[in-house]
Amino acid sequence: MTEQLHDFARIGHAELLTPKPDESLRFFVDVLGLEVEAQEAQSVYLRGWGDYLRYSLKLTESADAGLGHVGLRAWSREALERRVAAIEASGRGLGWTDGDVGHGPAYRFTDPDGHVFEAYYEAERYEAPEHLRPSWRNQPQRYVGRGACVKRLDHVNVLAADVRANRVFAQELLGYRLYERVELDDGTEAGAWLSLSIAAHELIYVADAYGASGRLHHLAFWVDTREECLRAADLFVDHDVPIEAAPSKHAIAQGFFLYAFEPGGNRIEVTTGGYFVYDPDFEPIVWTQAERARGQFWGVKTIDSFHTYGTPDVGGPA
Amino acid sequence: MTEQLHDFARIGHAELLTPKPDESLRFFVDVLGLEVEAQEAQSVYLRGWGDYLRYSLKLTESADAGLGHVGLRAWSREALERRVAAIEASGRGLGWTDGDVGHGPAYRFTDPDGHVFEAYYEAERYEAPEHLRPSWRNQPQRYVGRGACVKRLDHVNVLAADVRANRVFAQELLGYRLYERVELDDGTEAGAWLSLSIAAHELIYVADAYGASGRLHHLAFWVDTREECLRAADLFVDHDVPIEAAPSKHAIAQGFFLYAFEPGGNRIEVTTGGYFVYDPDFEPIVWTQAERARGQFWGVKTIDSFHTYGTPDVGGPA
Amino acid sequence: MTEQLHDFARIGHAELLTPKPDESLRFFVDVLGLEVEAQEAQSVYLRGWGDYLRYSLKLTESADAGLGHVGLRAWSREALERRVAAIEASGRGLGWTDGDVGHGPAYRFTDPDGHVFEAYYEAERYEAPEHLRPSWRNQPQRYVGRGACVKRLDHVNVLAADVRANRVFAQELLGYRLYERVELDDGTEAGAWLSLSIAAHELIYVADAYGASGRLHHLAFWVDTREECLRAADLFVDHDVPIEAAPSKHAIAQGFFLYAFEPGGNRIEVTTGGYFVYDPDFEPIVWTQAERARGQFWGVKTIDSFHTYGTPDVGGPA
Amino acid sequence: MTEQLHDFARIGHAELLTPKPDESLRFFVDVLGLEVEAQEAQSVYLRGWGDYLRYSLKLTESADAGLGHVGLRAWSREALERRVAAIEASGRGLGWTDGDVGHGPAYRFTDPDGHVFEAYYEAERYEAPEHLRPSWRNQPQRYVGRGACVKRLDHVNVLAADVRANRVFAQELLGYRLYERVELDDGTEAGAWLSLSIAAHELIYVADAYGASGRLHHLAFWVDTREECLRAADLFVDHDVPIEAAPSKHAIAQGFFLYAFEPGGNRIEVTTGGYFVYDPDFEPIVWTQAERARGQFWGVKTIDSFHTYGTPDVGGPA
Lengths: 318, 318, 318, 318
Known about the structure:
4 copies of one chain form a homotetramer.
Chain A: E1 8-18, H1 21-31, E2 35-40, E3 43-47, E4 57-61, E5 66-74, H2 77-90, E6 93-97, E7 106-110, E8 116-120, E9 152-160, H3 163-172, E10 177-183, E11 189-195, E12 203-207, E13 216-222, H4 226-238, E14 243-249, E15 255-261, E16 267-273, E17 285-287, H5 289-292, H6 305-308
Parallel strand pairs in A: 1-4, 5-8, 9-12, 10-17, 13-16
Antiparallel strand pairs in A: 1-5, 2-3, 3-4, 6-7, 7-8, 9-13, 10-11, 11-12, 14-15, 15-16
């Protein structure tokens, strides 16, 4: 067995597309509690109080909802070069860009399903302005306490026509470790939970019910406690944010969740919990179709839309 | 034994005096998360999202910090009349006022230590304006989620030169039940925890270290969970609110606490928890001096200022 | 308007019938965390660590699951006499019993639906034996920390063929206050939430889907935090306790819940939260059929069995 | 800059020495909630419900309290060989042992302060026996729910006469990343927080107030929520476990803590929270003497014994 790759550190940011930029912005700022760090062209760059980089969410006006791209930060310049060479060799490379607000040159590529990723190393660490300076220096930003006050972007869940192909790409080319996956009775892979760290998931692929490509399932934002998920649900109820799945505990990865739709139509999760993987030889958990039918950890049946809806919305019978 | 009086329902509001009205208002609105319900003359009337009356805090500009008065709402017009007659007979009555924002005629009186109370029955139930209308009708107001977002005024703790005299007055004239008290080795009563309901305390008297009179120890605001107390502490740290006692659990009454000073100098508590008293014959717990020396529930030693500081501040060695 | 009755203090205990006494006992002791306080004949008397009386649950072997009776403790001997006279006059009296383990003479009667209640005043306050003596004297018993370690019996929810008749009986004869109720479009009353205190419910009547009588919907046990409900759910999952409804927040009364079935078939709730009613003139919330169709507070659809199942199980299509 | 070492995965276990083996065992099993996985000679091997290896605590009878050794699991056989070669070259190697219950050959060495470590790769993954089999396969063991039910060993904090020398050894030879450290005004290093993962600390060195060597400050056990720390404190109070520091939040690393002494005299922490380090170029936070004097996150002053006591206890004025 080859040794584990350690070239990418983590998803640095995700770009979310919204056809309702003003309403989406109000949601992310007033209800989720993010801060506006920069604005440029049709995009607003947003951050949680615990993000070490300048932002983790780039919100961009667009005709349709969906995922713009996912930014992966490398461990070092050398690590970046190694990954770019490998991706280029795989034939999935799109080429270099000059970078964006807060980060340097980025190499763009697609996963087999067509989602756009960019790999970069140079990035600006966040320096809080006076009014957002924290009391303790081991916290990047003051705890403002507005709305759900999510701490940072946690993970990205994308839909894929062929989960297995994308999962293998993420493992072999990007260095993700596979912690859990679902395999249906017919051998199809229905979902894969991947991570670059001990956290139980940072990138997830689940089967697109419509066989479409490049779609987003959801972006998840972290809070430190389950109580904050419950509190976020109260806020959503009183701020007319449509809740798709009320707070509960996932069977897979054991994370605590709350799912809702932001005004642009994208699914958003407020999440915490889950387990850490400390086993260097961790044997991925493979869930059967029968086990998935048990529902969530405490027996909650997963709502149908969770298995079919994604952005952009392709509608029609799944 | 005479049967339990049931004439007063609960403290409806407390008036807090502040020499720094603007800073105090910013604290109560931005950090504690109260809403401004009305303003009149030198006062601002503030409410928590769970207050059923229009407000529970009247914040009034004044040369010194301290307690303006405590408003007690009676169960009915007849109950009010009964109490007024008894208080009048006790010689502590000050007479009727026409009422104030949100409530009708009130009968003013003082406790033996000189704190001003007012008794009233007629009061306006809160009707949320459109932008504060809750999603569910069994909640008086939308959950806004700003800052510590305290739910309502919970209890009032006042200092008294003679705790016993005031405690007996509260029991006999006002109908409070005594749940816990501290008796020093010399027989002095050092504190008394009183309630009109099953909640472990709604009115507290503790000995004034300076033997002064009419002073306030603190006003306490309720949150539903201990996690919200911890979160409030994070907010205080990042909003330069001086914390006097970090979140922990009281030995007496077992409430969870966080104490800090609002800009005007008054001590404020964010509280939750405690036990309910369901025993109709509840035998008050009498704590000895030795037991008090054990500190708080988990062994935290109570900070000295907690035993001496009150508003107005009379300074000098205690 | 007549003044509020204050003759009953609270439900002191409930008797639960089980066809599987050993398994039920193991559940209540090992999983819910109750202590065995006494055993007599076919009954075991159990207590939570926060119960001030010797026990709050009497578990009795029986051919069928269901409710044995509900014990109501009066505020005083005089209050008891007043209530007994009124109940007797109503024609629902069954007569006096000599009492039971832990309490004195009790007057038995039925509500209109046939559930058996007993009213008593004399009761033994719990005195912890050495191994269960708490560190702080304002706690009746040591916090043992076994299983879900529920604190005390919280409320009783019974089914009734005619909710309105029973609700009116509870208000007029027993002195319960009505805080919330459901009224269907055809004027039928589908549920009523009643309390003797500021707690949002202590006795609940909901419509029996089968029109049967004397059935139990559930007994609810209190924990101090929502986190303990979540933890109880984890315990239930790993102890093969069938969860009917995973932890979430009720729309009615806003309590946090977890529903499961004990081995004898009775529905059990682990509960916390909710609001306090401090308004002496509280106007009961009347929910319409349309509002009930919204589901629970965060939009969770109530599972069908919750509307039909009760003990004893009368089966058949509802 | 050389690239980050990734040869060690994590501390697999720690051996704790106790002069009161029976009482210590009762504490770890009944109060902390660990399971006995094996017993051999003078040692008992204990595990939390979330430990993926057979055990994380080896409790060994000994004349004095203190740390036996720390076991570090390598990422692979090759990684182990690389580290052993480097350690051997450093002159700190002690040689190979045949292994122990649950793991294969281990290479023993000391850090500069003399604490014994062992490095190994081969280890037995835990396979739960029938009565401890979990309901969901992504959890190593059933959630038993006894006592504080800690999930796993989290970190080890050791005292050292020369913090800097040990910290540099841990970084250069073992591959630890440094996240925070304290530097006194005279340039002395007073503490260093190190990790092999994104978790804010897994190995900590703090200055030994007596200049002694090889001593233990504490072992920390993980729980998933702050509420479980609070609950553990309640359990400690009622089980006569001496609490040194009641639950609160650290300034350094922002972990939530509860410190107490197990019967053998060793300090034990129940911990949760803290932040994750996702920055590949994380600049270690260096705290000044003045900043440390601010106390803990919410202003709690650190108790004196925390700065002086360790095991074995060397007593005398610090």
